[in-house]
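Minutes, structural biology subgroup

Action item carried over from last meeting: produce the structure token record for Glycosyl transferase GT8 family (Butyrivibrio proteoclasticus). EB confirmed the sequence was re-checked against the source entry. Recorded below for completeness.
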Amino acid sequence: MVIPVCFIYDKNFIMPTSVAITSMLENRNEDTFYDIFLIGVDCEDADLSCLEAFRNEKNVDIHFRNADMSAYASISQVSHVSQASLVKFNLPQLVTEYDKLLYIDGDVLIMQDLTEFFMEDLTGYYLGGPQNTVDIVRGKGQFLTGAYVYDSKKMIEDDIPQKLIDYRVSLGNRKSMDNTTFNEYLGAGFKKMPIKFDLPIRKLVYERMYYKLADLNAFYGTNYRSHKEVVEDAVVIHFDGAAKPWKYSCFLYDDVWLEYYKKSPCKDMPLKRKSYWDYLGEQVEKSGIKGIYYVFKDWVRESLGVFRSVHYVEGDWN
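Output recorded by EB:
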């Protein structure tokens, strides 16, 4: 089975993308051939040896492409989400070899073969991926943006890449680089898929205070018996949010990410991972006393058993 898989990276995501690819190759089926397309943003002078190394792997082909960012010149980065995420809009124009593409963020671990994900039927849709877990409470019908299946042929035929670009430019500067545009513009053109194809592990941990496992099962049509089982069933584990596993060593699955890092071509690149106490200090520096409040309030609420009465905070989700 040949599966075209696309990753988008900038200079800060070369190493994480290398780790993601390492996990993908470690956990594939013997008969799976990954045709990998690596789309670089402002990386013309970067050291790509950590990515070039995969050329030596069996049943793998690697293609390097450079993305032209001129269409996004008016958009500035105002959060941890890089401008490189904008390239998701015109990915079908950059990779024209296939009518269907799989895209995955670089801040992930790929824990199972991707054949099932890629083979999802997209008839009548432009994109497919899991619905956002926050919708279990919020119910707005938004989708996660860490892993997609693209119907590239249909998108190009309907000029969707350019329409997405134009819509995003019209939104101006905001925290969300790609999420809001995909959700607001495509809407019904986005197919709902199982949560295991893009499991946001940080959200899964945090959101347990707002809904029960039974609510998650009802929402996704699953039968998980524990949160551990949700994680173990994941095809793609997405380290959503700003606390990335190459920056911190104190959150769920950071240790598993480290094991794949040690197997990757980037294993000799030094890491400076921070502890939980470093994280707390950053919250204080960033938000003062409020930073400590936001970190510890959930522990207090858990002890009081009032999670279910707490309103889920609205935000510009990425």
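Discussion: The chain has one domain: 2-280.
Next step: EB to file the record with the rest of the batch.
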